[in-house]
Design goal:
Elements: E1 12-16, H1 25-34, E2 39-43, E3 49-50, E4 53-54, E5 68-71, H2 75-88, E6 92-95, H3 102-111, E7 114-117, H4 121-127, E8 135-137
Parallel strand pairs: 1-2, 1-5, 5-6, 6-7
Antiparallel strand pairs: 3-4, 7-8
Helix pairs in contact: 2-3
Length: about 140
Amino acid sequence: MGIEDFMRSDNVVAVVGVSRNPEKWGYKLYKFFKGKYRKVYPINPAVEEIDGDKVYPNLRSLPEVPDVVDIVVPPNVAREIVKEAIEVGVRRIWFQPGSEDEEAIKMCKEAGIETVWGACLMESIIKGPPKMGAFFSPSSG
């Protein structure tokens, strides 16, 4: 298990914090991931659709448990997302730069969730897994 497992094209990914604004990272990441992963679910409780795609209000509302949750929200919101991810059985979480939260990362470690922070998932797909600057916490189980 490693960072490469987050980037496998057969993953089902949920992007938490999608936006309809093309200038926002939540939009850019969602659009990019749609061409890279088997299935991508957009999540934002304030948005109903993006470019014709249904947007889900939360992880609990998804029709399946995603392999990876990519978090693109402020740190205080990330904590709540992690709690929900634990409830539904998510095994991998990637915190986009700016969404990292010490308490949320600690919760992931305690729940045995593989976690990456300090690097951008989109950039890692384009350039390859980060060699420096990223932190990876493998699952404990």
